Amino acid sequence: MIIGEAPGQNEDETGLPFVGKSGQLLDKILASVKLDPEEDVYVANIVKCLTGDTLIFTTEGYLRLDWIVKNRWLGKVLSVNNGGELVWQKITNWYQSPLAGRKLYQVTFPGQEIGYTATADHPILTHRGWISVAELQANDLVATGTPKSGLEALMATAFADVCVISKRSLHNLKYQQESFLTEWQPVIKREVSQVLESPFVYCLDVEETANFVTPAGVVHNCRPPGNRTPTAKEISACKPYLLEQIRLVNPKIILFTGATSLKGLTGEKKGISKVRGEWIEWEGRLCMAIFHPAYLLRNPSKEKGKPKWLMWQDIQKVRAKLDELNSEL
Asked: Three-state SS across 231-261?
């Protein structure tokens, strides 16, 4: 299993992991030791998205996700903080990428037709933490993104005087400093088999909380704005989902590409150049830190001792260890 930082521009555009120049170099590195990126390797690096007709709860009412993305709308969306409180947060970025054959699920509340349709790996907030849509069970309770009481009062926090939401008009409400906690309810999940009206899926970046509310619960954007290095809070928000991926894939070996993935999961504070190429045990799993392919692109020399030469030594160690583990089966 290869863990990177976050999808880049090429991943956004294709909906596939590691397909840019860094990914192409990674493929060559794997091929050099006869590792097939499709059969032998799982890459945890892809944009999680929703279909364009998904409605997002905003200060202007419910707006379609594709409209928000195409118009680069800079408004506020309803969100849930770490304490389960409902808060208004700004949109900071927008994404559109091809579905690229990914499996989709429709999620709704019981007795409700409108919900959302998301890629199978999209994280949603449940009582057991952030999990992917595909992992959602019948007994799971999801965060609805609506308060236990007082929707009108909540909406009043978005405006000083007047608030209008969808067909529901709420006039002359006073600004309040109250906090509101989300409700939790079960949902129904169905795999989508029909052809969609659009071949694209969409997502948003939301400041601080990195999530937003749909008619069927709270979903995560799991994407650092502007392709920057994720913050500690962003890593903390997405980490449970990545840990669940690791549990499900159950890889023989984990490779941390670059310092961000290494530090984010293990807490290692040493620089990547000081720990790369060494076997470490983390959570009972065999791991190794390697240079990120993007770093190798910036340092193309194959001279002995240079990053590319060191990567060649590291990937040979990985191949040898994998052969050793397979021989023990």
From this structure: CHHHHHHHHHHHHHHHHHHCCCEEEEECHHH
